[in-house]
Amino acid sequence: MRILIVEDEPKTGDYLQRGLSESGFVADLARTGPDGLHLALEHDYDLVVLDVMLPQMDGWTVLGKLRERKQTPVLFLTARDEIPDRVRGLELGADDYLVKPFAFAELLARARTLLRRGPVREPEIVKVADLEVDVRRHRVTRAGQRIDLTPKEYGLLQLLARREGEVLSRSLIASQVWDMNFDSDTNVVDVAIKRLRAKVDDPYPVKLIHTVRGMGYLMEVRE
User: Fold this and answer.
1) Angle (CA) 100 105 107, round 5°
2) How many other CB atoms sit within 10 Å of the CB of residue 150?
3) How far apart (Å, rounded) are the C-alpha atoms in residues 182 and 172?
């Protein structure tokens, strides 16, 4: 599982990254609010460990902007232990709140608890116009008609649908669907998009998958 740490204090950030990596997680580290928000929006993390007092953009603001687009579980990690601070964090959408100084064992236990809850937060059915992706059943329909997809086609469609209206680069799609990086000149993503369109878009008058020249692909309803 992949965890993002947003922590500006070098010693604490390095300590968390090393400890979580040694505990079997893939742990990325951002040292400013804008960098943390960018990573949290660009990648699909299973958990974000977020400091409150950050340079350039505080943790409250990062969480607020993240919640506009994603429901990634967030564990606040902060020296601010006043009740109003905790209430504010939880009302903004944080899932847990741990006060510094902390024991790594407690942070690890809380992180694992949140990760067990993680999938519950994801909607079971993602809808874009008359397209429905039933995540729990791995079933795709459009205008009430079932569409059979390969596992990769399904993963690609789910990614596009979950991030409706967002332009996704080829490299991002490759990393999310194929779990690896492709050379920039590869046409694997383009071929997969073409096959997906043949099933999801071509039989229907309204097209949902669009190409953004020089950037990538997005799914949205256009007039």
Assistant:
1) 50
2) 12
3) 10
Helix pair 10-22, 104-121: axis angle to 10 deg: 70
**Sign of the alpha-carbon torsion through 102, 106, 109, 114:** negative
pLDDT, tens digit, for every residue of 131-153?
Answer: 999 876 788 999 999 999 988 89
Which has more pLDDT, 123 or 65? 65
Interatomic CA distance for residues 85 and 82, integer angstroms: 5
Q: Is 5 helix (H, G, I), strand (E, B) or coil?
A: strand
DSSP reduced 3-state for 166: coil
Please tell me the predicted confidence (pLDDT) of residue 25: 80
Tell me the HSE value of 136 on the side-chain side, using a 13 A CA sphere: 7
Closest of 2, 72, 146, 128 to residue 137, by C-alpha: 146
Q: Measured between alpha carbons, how far apart are the two ends of the chain, in Å? A: 39
* Tokens, residue 40: 């949290």
The single residue listed with the structure tokens 């669009």 is: 210
Residue with tokens 């209206």: 165
